[in-house]
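Chapter summary example.
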Amino acid sequence: MENKMTISSGGDALRQFLEGQPQAGGFSAGGTDILKKAPEFNINLSALEIPGQEQTELAVLEQSGQKEDSPLEDIPVQTFLSNIDVSLKDVIDRVFRDSTRPIVIIRDDRVEYANKTFLQVLGLNGESDVLSERFLKFVFKEDWNLLAENIGEMLTNGKNLAIRLRTLENKIIKVSFSAVYVQDNQHFSFILIGEQLQQRKMSAVSGLYDSVTGLPNFYLLEDRIQVAVNNENYKDVRQKRNMIALLGVAIDNYAALKTIGMHELVLKKLAEKLALSLKKTYTVASGLKYQFWILIPEVQSSADLNVEIQRIKAVFDEPVADNFTEHQVVVSIGVSIFPDPSTSAKKLIEQAIMAVRKAQKEGGNKIILFGA
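The structure predicted for these 372 residues follows.
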């Protein structure tokens, strides 16, 4: 009974056996009875090392030319990149800094990074003017919902979206952006990459066209007026001389459109509509003094001229629409005619200007024919 209690207590008997001390109950290190009792002590015999086995196995391995793997060899070898200490911001800046595409990184609704091209588009002096600012601060207000509704499709389906940005000088510039999602567990982060901005090549030809509308500028118009007058003046006497008409068009509410940043959009839209609706023989130009000039050569009769003038007026009477709103345009139009009363290209221009001024003095939204 006493023997049994000693064994059941387990701890002291087991310790004495493992240390090779004589056992009170007759157990000895060389005996086999203890092995039978091993389960009672929760001992896994198969997991115990047999003395001398490690050395024997090592000797066998060495004789066979094999070597036991060292625990140190299980440590993963560090790669080249794991030894490099670089700032992600420095990498991003070097990749994006000199890109001709405007690039901005947004975290939630704040700007985290903007490259030089993006700053130039907005007319900003440096990153301090944009970092940590709400991105929508630089987006035309009427495009806020457009961006919010399409950002998901931009990130998942690669959709491009043209949105209008407001510059420091309150100008509106439309840029087409694609978006790339940035993995961020705590914030909604993404990169907006704008379309590539082509550097304008300075040449004699490029200086003859308006940078906003792409129309011939006033200097090129003057040359075409002179050519048209010369063609009529030097016709064979047997040929009929036609009339030449010049229209000056002033947008009376241009200042109001400029205040809301819509003036350039309106000019572009009107330029497109005029180019599509008028004959190819006409010249539609961007004005030096007024917003538009229209040269109509080879007019057959006064009735034909009146039809063309009304067609032109109808283009300006139709509201100019963007994605959300329509903008009404009010114009004063002055018309001069060669060869009567104008007798030269210079007089044709001067009399058109005087007719525009008269229309404006009379309250605008009128068509005045010089000399009528």
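To summarize the output: The chain has three domains: 2-65, 88-194, 206-369.
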